[in-house]
Amino acid sequence: MAKTLHVKKGDRVRVISGSDKGKIGEVLKVDVERERVLVSGVNIVKRHKRDSAPQPQSGQVIKGGIISSEAPIHVSNVMLVVKEDDKDVTTRVGYVREEVTRKRPDGTEYTKTRSVRVARKTGERIE
Questions:
Q1: Distance (Å, rounded) from C-alpha 119 to C-alpha 62?
Q2: φ, ψ of residue 77 in degrees (nearest 5)
Q3: Which residues, 6+ apart, have CB-to-CB distance to 127 below 8 Å?
Q4: Rg, Å, the chain Cα set
Q5: pLDDT at residue 58 above 80?
Q6: CA–CA separation, 7 and 18 (whole Å)
Q7: Domain 12-90 has CATH 2.30.30.30
Q8: Cα gap 120→7, rounded to integer Å
Q9: Rounded distance, CA 75 to CA 71, Å?
């Protein structure tokens, strides 16, 4: 069975530990296997890149230099941010089972339950 994490791509999160503690950013990428997330503007690292020769297929030259980019951080170091009374509030994530009605290809209907993420602090659904 596949693992699930409490954050998804596109969520706004606050870093709760580490050198970037307190920063808020959007989740750009989620690595479920390694339990790591890439957050915009957080954990910036610098890489030294060399100029590359023209590639035969594209013919373009990649310019070198010092390139700054985000590095992944562990998912336990971030907490979901929701809006409450026009303020950003961190919250834990809960799950509730909700009944939905589905249609089969032949037109008959049936009910099924699905899991929905809920903000523990406000009680509202997280889309």
A1: 44
A2: -95, 5
A3: none
A4: 21
A5: no
A6: 18
A7: yes
A8: 14
A9: 13
Task: Please give the pLDDT value at position 74.
Answer: 97
| Cβ proximity of 78 and 15 under 8 Å | yes
Hey, what are 109's tokens? 């209907």
How far is Cα 40 from Cα 71, in angstroms, rounded to an integer?
9
Contact 92, 121 (CB under 8 A): yes
How confident is residue 1, by pLDDT bands cut at 50, 70 and 90?
low
* Distance separating the N- and C-terminal Cα atoms of the chain: 23
How many whole angstroms separate alpha carbon 84 and alpha carbon 75?
A: 23
57 and 33 Cβ atoms separated by less than 8 Å: no
Concatenating the DSSP letter of every residue in the chain gives -----S--TT-EEEE-SSTTTT-EEEEEEEETTTTEEEETTSSEEEEEE---PPPTTT-PPPP-EEEEEE--EEGGGEEEEEEETTEEEEE-EEEEEEEEEEE-TTS-EEEEEEEEEEETTT--B--
Domain boundaries of the chain, sorted by first residue? 12-90
